[in-house]
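Researcher: Dear colleague, please comment on this protein.
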Amino acid sequence: MYTSFKNSKRAIGLGIALVIAVVLVPALASFQSINAIVNTHYVVVKSPIEGTLDGFSKMPGQPIEQGEELVRINNTRFKESAVNELAVEQKTLAERSLGLQLHLKNLQQLQKDLQNRVSVHRTHEFLRLEEQLAQAKSEKKAQESLIREQQLLAQRNALLLKENFISAAQNEAAQYALEVTQSRLDIFQARIRLLETEKQAVTQFVYLGEGRNDVPYTQQRLDDVRLQITDVAARLGENEQRSSDVQWQISKERDNMAMSREVRMHVPSQGVLWRKFGSNGTEVVIGTDLAHLINCDNLFLDVAVPESSLESFQIGKPVQYRLIGSTPWLTGQIHAVTGSGNNLQDTTLVAQLQREKKDARIFVKINAADLVKPQENLCFAGRKVDVKVPREWRPSVWLSRLSSFLM
């Protein structure tokens, strides 16, 4: 009986040792934490216009597909005053263009009339100068003949005076008459030069003479009309350019009005409607939050760990995890580590991890395809998980902790 009792004690001791080994050895071989959740960031959908919500039938937690219509926003109080003002300006510009076109047409007709009058005047002046020039040349020719005649008479008088057939007074009178005739020839020659100068000037549209301007009044009016035509054409071009710009503004404003009257918000990516703010008939203004959307492709684990063990959690290190209530262990990788001093909350996170002040955090990237139908299960966001990370034994670290404890 004593031997049996002794064997029982041994069996109990072996059982206790086995339990301790089963419990402690894995704990010593790896770090395990149940203060961890599945987390992700949400996308905020804001209202681009003010108006009333319509077609907002999706409920929080329902799956959504990329490109699916999420909500419509109708603005029934939109005013068209800007377009009306532009339309009035467009009408005014059109009327001004018609007036400028008519004015330009009248100026062009006046220009043609003045050009005809200038042409007639120039032709008349040219013919008049040619007639006067021909007359002056004829008078010059006659004067030259008279000079030759008087020169012959003066030569005969000189012979007659030598023979004493005439008196010296008669000979002097003949000489004076020759000088007068030669002087008149100089006058005719000067007049011919003047007429030729005037004729040459007329060919260049310049009119010379006493009591005249360099150009006639009609030519001056023509020059003035040309300047007016240039000015009116420039104003017409500017007016038509402004009209074109206003037409473009009207088109753009109408496009903006169409966008501002009704906006259809579509889902940017596949995921889950996490939160909605408002329902059909809700009045919103620009920038109002309409919904929070999450994408199951961007899931990660948010894990609280002791800051004293942070050196064991290296980026890229494999991590085992399982959802609380499930049995299969899945694998992820550490992709970020932060200390306990980082107490700033990320307001874009779907769930907030409850941790102690001295707890650090690690973030583990996981593959959503490893989970069962994540889109139908709210992407498992906020779900508690059990996490195991293999430990790395570092005797120097243990000795330093032991020495600090003893001292």
Remarks:
- The radius of gyration is 57 Å.
